[in-house]
């Protein structure tokens, strides 16, 4: 069997990053260590959550759950040096790929004007063999982010939404994609990545299985990714798309 191809370093010489994900906790399951690296270098990173995760804890009614998960997401952001976290209030579990969603994301792109946009895996599955299926919200949001990058750059699409057009996005990075070919060395930021996921305390308490153990999950994934990134002891992997 051929050895796995080495990851390429994800270009990170940026000073503005926008993270757009469907739910609280999405970025923390694999990408938060990269955020910690970027903020440590002085980059301004903003999070945009499409939902408040109100359907994410079976034992909490949606209104209460939304308050809990918003607070936990803000704590997760703080753990990796992020102070700006916005929510769009699309319905958790029912997010639709739509013109309205593209407009909301394009408006945020124009407001924040990032060079790098980070989102989650929008592929049908989490693995190359297609055995572990992705969730509908992730797929819809990832697709909408990719299209909204183009929308934000076109002055005739959604005129007035968010301000002047923005065509400065250099890349869209998809955290946890089965087509990942790039990675970020997070060797010095693994503890922050763990702390960021651990901030989702009540969400994790409602889980079972490997995803409930934040430290073990984050460390194992980061160490496995680092095996393909020369010089790293921990890494976060991404698929990199160019607009």
UniProtKB/TrEMBL annotation:
The keyword Glycosyltransferase does not apply. The keyword Zinc applies. Pfam families: PIG-L. Signal peptide: none annotated. One of its GO terms (molecular function) is hydrolase activity, acting on carbon-nitrogen (but not peptide) bonds, in linear amides. GO terms for biological process: glycoside metabolic process. Keywords: Zinc. InterPro entries: GlcNAc_PI_deacetylase-related, LmbE-like_dom_sf. PANTHER family: LMBE FAMILY PROTEIN (PTHR12993:SF28), N-ACETYLGLUCOSAMINYL-PHOSPHATIDYLINOSITOL DE-N-ACETYLASE-RELATED (PTHR12993). This is N-acetylglucosaminyl deacetylase, LmbE family. It comes from Pseudonocardia ammonioxydans.
């Amino acid at each position: 069997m051929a050895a796995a191809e080495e990851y390429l370093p994800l270009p990170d010489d940026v000073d503005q990053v926008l993270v757009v994900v469907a739910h609280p906790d999405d970025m923390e399951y694999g990408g938060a260590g990269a955020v910690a690296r970027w903020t440590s270098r002085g980059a301004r990173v903003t999070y945009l959550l499409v939902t408040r995760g109100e359907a994410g804890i079976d034992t909490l009614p949606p209104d209460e759950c939304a308050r809990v998960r918003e607070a936990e997401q803000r704590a997760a952001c703080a753990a990796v040096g992020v102070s700006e976290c916005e929510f769009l209030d699309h319905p958790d579990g029912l997010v639709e790929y739509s013109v309205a969603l593209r407009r909301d994301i394009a408006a945020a792109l124009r407001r924040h004007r990032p060079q790098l946009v980070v989102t989650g895996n929008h592929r049908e599955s989490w693995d190359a063999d297609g055995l572990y299926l992705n969730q509908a919200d992730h797929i819809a949001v990832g697709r909408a982010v990719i299209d909204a990058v183009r929308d934000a750059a076109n002055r005739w699409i959604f005129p007035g939404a968010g301000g002047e057009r923005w065509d400065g996005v250099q890349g869209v990075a998809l955290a946890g994609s089965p087509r990942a070919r790039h990675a970020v060395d997070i060797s010095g930021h693994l503890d922050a990545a763990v702390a960021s996921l651990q901030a989702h305390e009540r969400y994790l308490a409602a889980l079972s299985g490997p995803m409930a153990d934040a430290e073990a999950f984050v460390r194992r994934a980061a160490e496995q990714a680092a095996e393909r990134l020369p010089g790293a002891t921990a890494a976060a992997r991404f698929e990199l798309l160019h607009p």
